[in-house]
Sequence to fold (240 residues):
Amino acid sequence: GSPRRLLLVSNSTLRGGGYLGHCQQHIQGFLGERVRRVLFVPYALHDRDAYARRARERFESLGYGLDSIHESCDPVEAVRKSEAIFVGGGNTFRLLKALYDNSLIEEIRKRVLEDGIPYVGSSAGTNVATISINTTNDMPIVYPPSLQALGLVPFNINPHYLDPDPKSTHMGETREERILQYHEEPNTPPVLGLREGAMLLVEGDKATLQGVTGARLFMRGKKPTEHEPGTDFSFLLTEA
Fold:
């Protein structure tokens, strides 16, 4: 089986808690004691210094050192030497463009899929772990050379998945309608809608829904299905 280990979190901050507060125990359990330092990828936000300070503060409170890739003179070498990678949220297009610009797509793929180093993604960092960023919620403020992403899993995720509000007077498409429109295109992969507070743990060929909220799964040509924390999504890793 694959040595890949991923923790794909829907959101960095949950209402009533601090940065990564709702998932800090999951991160600690996932990284364990063998990881000493984490390589942070802050490319999704413009102010990378401030973002790195914020992430460093949180990870140091959990007992891990943190190096930000934007501070490295050789980003590729930083990935090659990393013990674990954390890719933060922000704008998915900005993040993916920077990964291409810095020649990091293949390097991160190799480190995660072949060397088995842990990968933590939050929001945009979860988006880029999938096949493509076609199902991101973000505006295309910059233009990456491709919408194809890291492909660490063979399906797509929609972080921050929102259910329709029955009281809303908004007449635009719901998130579900937008995903169904995506599936009107041929050969489109499954999309896992992760609500705020949900995360997907992938260990080799096993995938499990974790967190405090559920997820909605969209398979092309099928009705969407509802899933609770604890759901085994391993079939998505093989069937997709």
User: Anything to note?
Assistant: Residues 25 and 62 are 9 Å apart (CA to CA). The chain has a mean pLDDT of 94. The domain at 5-236 is CATH 3.40.50.880 (Rossmann fold).
